[in-house]
Amino acid sequence: MTKPSSHHDTFVIERIFKAPIARVFAAWADPAFKRKWFIGPDEWTRSPHRLDFKVGGKESIAGGPAEGPLHRYEAVYHDIVANHRVVSTYDMYLDDVRISVSLATVELFADGAATRLVYTEQAVYLDGYDDAGERERGTRGLFDQLAAALAAA
Questions:
Q1: Is the Cα dihedral 84, 22, 80, 15 positive or negative?
Q2: Of the candidates 71, 72, 77, which has an alpha carbon nearest to the alpha carbon of residue 89?
Q3: What does the DSSP assignment read for 89-150?
Q4: pTM over 0.85
Q5: 153 residues of the chain, pLDDT tens digit each
Q6: In angstroms, rounded to a whole number, what is the distance separating the alpha carbons of residues 95 and 37?
């Protein structure tokens, strides 16, 4: 085993979505809608997505390539202000190894008929399995999927 390590980092993503705040907020809050965009690549296997969107509620999903490893996301919601803010913490795992612990904040602002989303993630990346650059790229990909889901709705 290599020597345990931790690396702390923060990234911020700002994105304009061509949808009203209520629809963007629903994309986070409605389990059926969130399943449309909060997913890995098409070729990955997937577990059922579970979402209990309330303060103290939990969310989980897992998936990965057929040959592994399994990528697992487990979140807890700490603060929800309808149509304005969502604060959660989440752990990421590869198989049974925890690779990071994050604090994620989603803030929504009216921008004419559109919505400006500001996403801030503060994380500790454990033992060299992941880093802020990779996590930010993955999150940007999820936001691309969110934009497509909003456009299709």
A1: negative
A2: 77
A3: EEEEEETTEEEEEEEEEEEEEEETTEEEEEEEEEEEEETTS--HHHHHHHHHHHHHHHHHHH
A4: yes
A5: 568 999 999 999 999 999 999 999 999 999 999 999 999 888 999 899 999 999 999 999 999 999 999 999 999 999 999 999 999 999 999 999 999 999 999 999 999 999 999 999 999 999 998 889 999 999 999 999 999 999 998
A6: 22
